[in-house]
Design goal:
383 residues; alpha+beta; 9-stranded mixed beta sheet; 23% helix; disordered N terminus; binds 2-oxoglutaric acid; binds fe (ii) ion; oxidoreductase; metal-binding
């Protein structure tokens, strides 16, 4: 893999997210040089920052501009209407979850997130035979679409289809930048027809003030399982205290700051957020040299970040960046629809031999993507 001799030692400095024009990946007859240039920029951004903006995508503004207003209107429906699509094991973990139902896990405990959401996944017939030695996935099934607001339902379906194409297009660029065949992340690995996808429609109300009560305690059924992430600001670590919840067997961590969504890395290949969504999204810089990162949301740039599976495939070259959501505006709630472009459910993800050497041996064991996802989504169901 030419050009990556010192790749693992990169300490490129950054103070803002790279903005990458991907026009050469979407136009009909681009030159190979133009595509290679975009690929190189994507890989450098993934390696050094883990987040980047994408312009030149060719997606019409109408596809994404009105959708957040429609999502906002859906969340304003009465609770009993929203609960018509309540999430649970019987709905294959798809549907609506109220405030505080989603948790972020840490070593030693969990914290409830201050948001409500609709969780959607690629629809898979639950009677599809499972591969040898595997049980059928409890996530396989149909979505509970927000049909209570037909205009939103329609817009959402169109938006998710478009995001699937955008995800596949960007992954083609990343493959080129890694010196792989353009379609490396297609077929059994991912691709428009074969990629798995996850989407969340999320509403973050203003955060409660210090001392106000936490989200209503109801069973947590979905998690941003983040294993051992440290809080992004050291002051919070000092303020953290542990409360025992003997009935649940796991500890609920309460700390002075209630987060809209706790710090985590994303699970798959590539996360895509609508233009303008980063106002309250904070990411932890990857390198010690970058101790602040300016986010500059724009009307036309989608904001992307990479996930755990790209780290495994690239043997740690392209690592996801830990991030969290903190709605700091006391007067306004925030709505967001992150789309997660994932590997194929059955993809076996393992370090590429080209990125392993005697100096840098394989850092990760092979993992089936579906197992990784289930480990995250189902992990705290017993809470
Ligand atoms: O709300 C957002 O924009 C992003 C939320 C997020 O990080 C996630 O759902 O993984
Ligand atoms: Fe995330």
């Amino acid at each position: 893999m030419p050009g990556f001799a010192n790749a693992f030692d990169s300490d490129r400095n950054f103070t803002s997210l790279p903005i990458i024009d991907i026009k050469a990946l979407v136009e009909r007859a681009p030159t190979p040089e133009a595509k290679a240039q975009v690929g190189a920029e994507l890989v450098a951004a993934c390696r050094d920052v883990g987040f980047f903006y994408v312009t030149g995508h060719g997606i019409a503004e109408e596809t994404y501009q009105g959708i957040l207003q429609l999502a906002r209107a859906w969340f304003q429906l009465p609770e009993d209407v929203k609960k018509q699509i309540d999430i649970g094991p019987q709905t294959h973990f798809r549907g609506y979850q109220g405030l505080g139902a989603n948790v972020t896990r840490y070593d030693g405990g969990f914290q409830r997130d201050w948001h409500e959401a609709i969780d959607l996944y690629k629809e898979v017939d639950p009677s599809t035979p499972a591969p040898a030695g595997k049980r059928q996935s409890p996530i396989h099934g149909s979505n509970q679409w927000p049909s209570q607001l037909p205009a939103f339902d329609r817009a959402l379906r169109g938006y998710l289809d478009t995001m699937l194409y955008l995800g596949s297009t960007i992954m083609r660029g990343i493959a080129i930048g890694l010196g792989l065949a353009e379609d490396f992340f297609e077929g059994e690995r991912a691709g428009v027809d074969t990629a798995y996808w996850v989407a969340r429609v999320i509403h973050y109300p203003p955060l409660p003030k210090n001392g106000q009560s936490s989200p209503a305690a109801r069973p947590a059924i979905s998690s941003k399982a983040a294993h051992s992430h440290q809080p992004l600001e050291s002051g919070e670590a000092d303020a953290a205290s542990i409360e025992q919840q003997p009935s649940e067997g796991l500890t609920e961590i309460s700390r002075s700051v209630q987060l809209s969504c706790g710090e985590h890395s994303d699970y798959g290949l590539l996360t895509i957020g609508q233009p303008g969504r980063t106002a309250y999204l904070r990411c932890k810089p990857k390198t010690a040299r970058a101790n602040g990162c300016q986010l500059t949301p724009s009307r036309a740039a989608f904001v992307c970040n990479i996930g755990d599976m790209l780290k495994v495939w690239t043997n740690g070259l392209l690592q996801p960046t830990v991030h969290r959501v903190l709605n700091t505006d006391p007067s306004r709630s925030r709505v967001s629809i992150p789309f997660f472009y994932e590997p194929a459910y059955e993809a076996i993800v393992e370090p590429l031999p080209q990125l392993c050497s005697a100096q840098h041996p394989a850092q990760h064991a092979a993992i089936r993507y579906g197992d990784h996802l289930e480990g995250k989504v189902l992990n705290n169901f017993e809470l």
